[in-house]
């Protein structure tokens, strides 16, 4: 019988595999640089591999022809494999579904690092165009008002596409362009008709809120008296409020089709944007190699054209090896907190007041208390106490919970906070107190339902109180916002960590920026339970994620670009990295959500300091040739690299992954050093963008057991744009196993240029 079952299982799986092999699915065919001489018609290529009886499939979903070449189409697995062997094709991969990485923040950067005051607003900020690949935009938001803005720069070649609920008049001198793409996840398996890349229905309008939020964070106009139902009240503004915005709607609530993301990047480069902000990416568990990753491909060619691409590093933290969007030509962003928290106090029957975290607009007050019960003591019949204590769906007995405030824990993270809240509401509870050590620093929005969250230490106090009396009672007060919170910034628990899963020779993420509880524009929500009683839907929302950190860096990059219009993408990235801050508002080293000192795989070079980055002194310029060498060292063939480059390129004879550390990057990462053998050395070249005559001396901050030597120890410059090189050697014979972190600090007395390093001792 067992053998029969095994036979049936194998036969069924073989049938399913054979069937799926022949079922057309959306694929992306990437063909490298537009400079490649070979130019075959995309439709002609399809017609040679698709059977004549299926000629209806000889059609394109998207065609790429501005920054790079290629197309997307419906192919079977066999056809895709056949196409991958065609001359001129670099890679063929399935059209994957990428996920969204979903006021006071700029004020915090201003107060800590001197950013945002009028004297620092660059003269040419209005010439800078930020393109966002996201869920669309809500043009009526006051954050996109164009009052007082000058005429649109002549370099802009983009369009404002009309849709079912979006008119050309929705664009203005602030929101200068808007496009949308048809094969979003809800329709990813449906090819468009003919060769058109424009869907018959759709719109650039945001129906999720994510794109509106990121766009206003990057470059929203200043809006006075902004708030989220009274919370986070103040002036809401973007990082570069005078810059222009262009939205490329490639995403819906279900995610983002990779073919649409590629098309959006291709269009953005052609339209004339200066910076592209992408707060999306694939799961860290399913990372593709660099030539099967649509964001990496698009960003490479954008970089070739002088366009900086800024990406979120992902929300799969706090585990290591979770950072994504980690190609060396991408500016990868981690998320941090700011000095504001949303406090929802819990008042126990013994008089103790506990400062919990959460966003709730309940009508509970000090004057009335309610019975307090632990979830594990209110389990439904035949339900394990462990499930009830976690507020599992169906785990609570409403006869034991109705009218009471329930306390649940988060020992099983598979049940989200939103689900726990819904379970508690369904059990007719008066409110929910959640004990959750991991997520305690990121406020959950429960709408009008009373909710507060605490860490384990405080949670133990609450449970002890419940067990100390026959009739425990409590109340949960409505949220108040508290500013000046310390320490800040702190690495967000969800922020993805390095080392990079594809290569440890490049230190990722690059920098850190505010991404926790960020107030910015959003779509007016009418969802039941999200709008407080008697209130109108808000034009603003408070969101958290590396999605929110990414546009902060895009806005800062626009700020730099407006001051230095000829700086390349890598110079802007270098300026942000080498001037980043490594201490918090207590003057102590940056920490993580576990209250320990943060390492470079969590923070990158540190928290961005936009004003300092305008005058970095020295910069590390990473050229397209450097990136091509990186691809050589990584192991790609010369033919493939030449196709990407659009010209003949030869790799060094002795290319190996160990040489990746020698790429001229602002940070240093050495993936493996044998602690019992010789030292490892890397070289770097810096360019002087400060005063003509200057001399820089180096100071080394190294971990215990490391001997780090720099040669030469002084760099002398006699003119601007002069270059100088140095060598760094790492002797780790006395070091502990694992990664050690430190920095090289170059200074001429006026500038501080910090280049951080991570070295893995075997």
UniProtKB/TrEMBL annotation:
Annotated signal sequence range: 1-18
Give the source lineage, highest ranks first. Answer: Eukaryota, Viridiplantae, Streptophyta, Embryophyta, Tracheophyta
Q: Where is the Subtilisin-like protease fibronectin type-III domain?
A: 662-759
Species per Swiss-Prot/TrEMBL record: Dioscorea cayennensis subsp. rotundata (White Guinea yam)
Gene behind this protein: LOC120265947
Locate the Peptidase S8/S53 domain: which residues? 126-592
**Where do the coiled-coil regions begin and end?**
none
Cite the residue spans of the region called Disordered.
187-214, 583-607
Protein name (database record)? CO(2)-response secreted protease-like
Which PANTHER family does UniProt cross-reference here?
PROPROTEIN CONVERTASE SUBTILISIN/KEXIN
In what residue span(s) does the Inhibitor I9 domain sit?
A: 27-101
């Amino acid at each position: 019988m067992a053998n029969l079952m095994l036979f049936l299982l194998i036969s069924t799986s073989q049938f399913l595999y054979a069937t799926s092999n022949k079922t057309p699915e959306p694929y992306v065919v990437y063909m490298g640089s537009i400079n490649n001489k070979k130019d075959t018609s995309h439709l002609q290529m399809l017609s040679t591999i698709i059977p004549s009886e299926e000629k209806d499939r000889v059609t394109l979903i998207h065609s790429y022809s501005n920054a790079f070449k290629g197309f997307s189409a419906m192919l079977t697995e066999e056809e895709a494999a056949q196409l991958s062997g065609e001359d001129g094709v670099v890679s063929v991969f399935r059209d994957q579904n990428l996920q969204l990485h979903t006021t006071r923040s700029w004020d915090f950067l201003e107060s800590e690092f001197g950013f945002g005051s009028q004297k620092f607003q660059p003269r040419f900020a209005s010439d800078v165009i930020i393109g966002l690949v996201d869920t669309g935009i809500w043009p009526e938001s006051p954050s996109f008002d164009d009052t007082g803005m000058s005429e649109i720069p002549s370099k802009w070649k983009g369009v404002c596409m009309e849709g079912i609920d979006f008119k050309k008049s929705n664009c203005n001198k602030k929101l200068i362009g808007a496009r949308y793409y048809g094969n979003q996840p809800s329709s990813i398996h449906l090819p468009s008709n003919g060769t058109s890349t424009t869907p018959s229905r759709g719109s650039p309008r945001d129906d999720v809120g994510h794109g509106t939020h990121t766009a206003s964070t990057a470059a929203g106009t200043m809006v006075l008296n902004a708030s989220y139902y009274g919370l986070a009240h103040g002036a809401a503004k973007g990082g570069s409020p005078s810059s222009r915005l262009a939205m490329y709607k490639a995403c819906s609530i279900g995610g983002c089709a990779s073919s649409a993301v590629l098309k959006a990047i291709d269009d953005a480069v052609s339209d004339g944007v200066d910076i592209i902000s992408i707060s999306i990416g694939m799961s860290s568990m399913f990372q593709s190699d660099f030539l099967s990753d649509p964001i990496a491909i698009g960003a490479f060619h954008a970089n070739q054209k002088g366009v900086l691409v800024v990406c979120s590093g992902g929300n799969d933290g706090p585990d290591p090896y979770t950072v994504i969007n980690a190609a060396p030509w991408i500016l990868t962003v981690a998320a941090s907190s700011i000095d504001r928290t949303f406090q929802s106090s819990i008042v126990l029957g013994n008089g103790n007041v506990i400062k919990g975290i959460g966003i709730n607009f309940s009508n509970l007050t000090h004057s009335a208390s309610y019975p307090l019960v632990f979830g594990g003591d209110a389990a439904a019949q035949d339900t394990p106490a462990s499930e009830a204590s976690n507020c599992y769906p169906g785990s609570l007995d409403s006869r034991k919970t109705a009218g009471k405030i329930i306390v649940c824990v988060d020992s099983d993270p598979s049940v989200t906070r939103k689900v726990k809240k819904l379970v508690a509401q369904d059990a007719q509870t008066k409110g929910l107190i959640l004990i959750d050590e991991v997520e305690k620093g990121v406020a959950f929005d429960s709408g009008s339902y009373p909710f507060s969250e605490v860490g384990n230490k405080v949670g133990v106090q609450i449970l002890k109180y419940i067990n100390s009396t026959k009739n425990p009672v409590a109340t949960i007060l409505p949220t108040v916002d508290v500013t000046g919170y310390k320490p800040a910034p702190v690495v967000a628990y969800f922020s993805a960590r390095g080392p990079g899963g594809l290569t440890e020779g490049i230190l990722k993420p690059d920098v850190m920026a505010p991404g926790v509880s960020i107030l910015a524009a959003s779509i007016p929500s009418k969802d039941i339970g999200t709008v407080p009683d008697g209130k109108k839907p808000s034009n603003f929302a408070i969101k958290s994620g590396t999605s929110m950190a990414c546009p902060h860096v895009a806005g800062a990059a626009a700020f730099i670009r407006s001051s230095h219009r000829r700086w390349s993408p890598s110079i802007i990235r270098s300026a942000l990295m080498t001037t980043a801050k490594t201490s918090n508002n207590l003057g102590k080293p940056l920490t993580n959500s576990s209250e320990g000192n943060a390492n470079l795989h969590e923070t990158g070079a540190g928290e961005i300091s936009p004003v300092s980055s305008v005058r970095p002194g020295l910069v590390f310029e990473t050229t397209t040739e450097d990136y091509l060498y990186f691809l050589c060292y990584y192991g790609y063939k010369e033919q493939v690299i030449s196709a990407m480059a659009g010209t003949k390129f030869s790799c060094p004879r002795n290319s190996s992954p160990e040489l990746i550390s020698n790429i001229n990057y602002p940070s240093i990462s050495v993936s493996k050093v044998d602690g019992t053998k010789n030292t490892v050395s890397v070289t770097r070249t810096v360019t002087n963008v400060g005063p003509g005559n200057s001399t820089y001396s180096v100071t080394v901050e190294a971990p215990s057991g490391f001997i780090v030597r720099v040669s030469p120890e002084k760099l002398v410059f006699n003119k601007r744009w002069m270059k100088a090189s140095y060598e760094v050697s790492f002797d780790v014979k006395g070091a502990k196993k694992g990664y050690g972190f430190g920095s090289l600090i170059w200074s001429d007395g006026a500038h501080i240029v910090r280049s951080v390093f991570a070295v893995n001792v075997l």
